[in-house]
Amino acid sequence: MIPTDPKAVVIGASAGALEALTSILPTLSGDFRLPIMVVVHIPPDKRSVLAELFGAKSSIEVIEVEDKEPIRPATAYFAPPDYHLLVEDQGTLGLTNEEPVLFSRPSIDVLFESAADVYGAAVVAVLLTGANHDGAKGLVAIARAGGHVIIQDPQTAFAAAMPEAGLALCPDATVLSLDGISEYLRRIG
Amino acid sequence: MIETFEKVEDIEIRLLLEALYLRYHYDFRNYATGSIKRRLRQAREQLGFATISAMQERALHDETMLPRLLGYLTVQVSEMFRDPGYFRAIREVVVPHLRTYPSLKIWIAGCSGGEELYSLVILFREEGLEDRTIFYATDINQDALQIAEAGVYDVDRIQLFTENHRKSGGRSSLSDYYSAGYGRVSFDRTLRDRVVFSDHSLVTDAVFGEMNLISCRNVMIYFDKALQDRAVGLFRDSLARKGFLGIGAKESLRFSAHADDFSEFVRQEKIYQRIGK
């Protein structure tokens, strides 16, 4: 259940994301040693306040990504509106303007697939509440690469469609409540 | 097993990019891998090849594959006056400096379908600078250059363009510059009078003129760090003293090897000024 040497955590969330992430990011201590990449579905034409909001509440550093941002421990990286966020193989994060996936840019699938390519088994992917199916295919890529897949218990989710879609494609995933996810992350990081 | 499969794909991608370079001199070898991988996987699926190697074989022997692959490898997403704040800053902060020059050269690097180009030409016309300016619009994709040169867009997009233009501080109505018909809008030919369209690669080509403003937005995000450094170096060498460089809203020169050659001119809008020389 605990991966031997995780190098990163990736998180995807949509409807209900704010509340869900509030139960997770602020619970991590400043010496949390992993980077966390986060995709939340947000409208393309508005400035996002997610990074500022969580930065004020959290002990870890929280930033909105600019292209080629170096990946550092104890930092949460939010995708900016209207860009996909990808993990790159040179220890940096990249952004792209490629077409939306399942109507979403940023897309959870795009982040998860790139994390599977770069980290292989050394990544933990967490799919939270949401009302569409983004993220499910990405979880399959994570699982195939040997990474650890965690899905929020759909019964506890604000919107169950996304975690349910994840479970349909990854039936062996670890299913946890938000508190369970927070506790899990504190143990591995 | 799965592990082996993934690594084979990495090898195949490297070989395909090498093949495109050797055969056609299109150099994607230093593009950011995450995004290249995604798009080659898409191309493989949609073009119906079993493997990327099979796609490579066809690309080597069949020239008609090149434009199709380029369609996947170069991302054509733009809109007129995208990020209106950027164009407002050009208008309000950069233009007053440009006015002091008797002649101007502007380079739209990676002009794609021309949206950014026409935005700047219209802005310069509104500000009375068009007549003293030459615009260089370059891209590596011939199909994109043809679209840019035609200046014809789907009528569905015009509402967004119009809204952006207004937010950017436009002094005229966008409808003054196009005629509509058959579901398309066609931008006024005279907007092309001062434009030179040209095939130019930020990867393999060199400086071709001394520019007062270079606008290159969301092009370098597809490059790896080393290639970004090359492109920014090329821009630095192409800029006149105190010339301007505008990049995408989520791009930054912070991570560039040439960061010290530029100052932040309009920080929020990612407009930089060449210093020194």
UniProtKB/TrEMBL annotation, chain A:
Signal peptide: none annotated. It comes from the Bacteria. Coiled coil: none annotated. Keywords: Chemotaxis, Hydrolase. InterPro entries: CheB_C, Sig_transdc_resp-reg_Me-estase. Its EC number is 3.1.1.61. Pfam families: CheB_methylest (PF01339). It catalyses: [protein]-L-glutamate 5-O-methyl ester + H2O = L-glutamyl-[protein] + methanol + H(+). Residues 2-185 form the CheB-type methylesterase domain. It is an enzyme of class 3 (hydrolase). The active site is at S14, H41, D134. One of its GO terms (molecular function) is protein-glutamate methylesterase activity. PANTHER family: PROTEIN-GLUTAMATE METHYLESTERASE/PROTEIN-GLUTAMINE GLUTAMINASE (PTHR42872), PROTEIN-GLUTAMATE METHYLESTERASE_PROTEIN-GLUTAMINE GLUTAMINASE (PTHR42872:SF6). This is protein-glutamate methylesterase. The lineage of its organism: Bacteria, Pseudomonadati, Pseudomonadota, Alphaproteobacteria, Hyphomicrobiales.
Automatic annotation (TrEMBL), chain B:
Its EC number is 2.1.1.80. Keywords: Methyltransferase, Transferase. The keyword Methyltransferase applies. GO terms for biological process: methylation. The keyword Cytoplasm does not apply. GO terms for molecular function: protein-glutamate O-methyltransferase activity. This is Chemotaxis protein methyltransferase CheR. It comes from Neorhizobium huautlense. The lineage of its organism: Bacteria, Pseudomonadati, Pseudomonadota, Alphaproteobacteria, Hyphomicrobiales.
